[in-house]
Design goal:
The protein is of the alpha/beta class. The chain has one domain: Nucleotidyltransferase, domain 5, CATH 3.30.420.10. The protein is built from 8 helices and 5 strands, in the order βββαααβαβαααα. It has a 5-stranded mixed beta sheet with strand order 3-2-1-4-5, sandwiched between helices. α4 links the parallel β4 and β5. α5 packs across α7 and α6 crosses α7. The protein is globular, with a radius of gyration of 16 Å. It starts with a strand and ends in a 19-residue tail after the last helix.
Length: 198
């Protein structure tokens, strides 16, 4: 199998995993980035308060998302971009929780993606003092990107995985995970979500 996957990154409005306010995506085919995209998201109701801490990290403010598509409105575009790919994210537990919790909050069915964590991959691939995304991306040869811009972070993550696969001699992300002794989990199927009354 070729080195095909989609890297994903979410930014959140507050400490709730359901508070997605931006997504970035990078599609890799045969070890090369062939498409990128990203957009703002209006977080689900009840999870839409913006904390100053989060604004300080990513710079996204409530006014920026007031005309953005809601989680439910954009989910189809996200799923269309990803297709049947394995997802990759840096600290994937966070990003997969955003997918699950935002779907829980809106009553949408969460896609049951398989995924690999580039943070775990990087710890097995590079000898670094820190495995924060900018430092790992630099080790992979991807320099000077706008950290905490979701699209830029997804692209950096994609380059980390491409470099790690090259170093390991892996031809696809599942093989890379196996060579490094890592699992390839899947987002579990959720019970039918029920929207809570407003």
């Amino acid at each position: 199998m070729p080195l095909d996957f989609t890297a994903i990154d979410f930014e959140t409005a507050n400490s709730s995993s359901a508070s997605a306010c931006a997504v970035g995506l990078a599609r890799v085919r045969d070890g090369r980035v062939v498409a990128t995209d990203g957009w703002l998201i209006r977080p689900p109701a009840g999870h839409d308060r913006f904390f100053e801490l989060n604004i300080g990290i990513h710079g996204i403010r409530p006014d920026d998302v007031q005309d953005a598509p809601t989680w439910s409105e954009q989910l189809g575009d996200l799923a269309a971009f990803v297709g049947d790919d394995v997802l990759v994210a840096h600290n994937a537990g966070f990003d997969m929780a955003v997918l699950r919790r935002a779907c829980d909050a809106t009553g949408d069915r969460c896609p049951e993606y398989r995924y690999v964590c580039s943070l775990q991959v990087s710890r097995k691939t590079y000898d670094l003092d820190s495995y924060r995304l900018p430092l790992v991306a630099a080790a992979a040869g991807f320099l000077d990107f706008a950290h905490h811009d979701a699209a830029a972070d997804a692209l950096a993550c994609a380059h980390i995985m491409i470099d790690a696969a090259r170093r390991a001699g892996a031809f696809d992300v599942v093989e890379l995970a196996m060579l490094l002794g890592l699992r390839v989990p899947q987002i579990p199927a959720a019970a039918t979500a029920v929207l809570s009354p407003a």
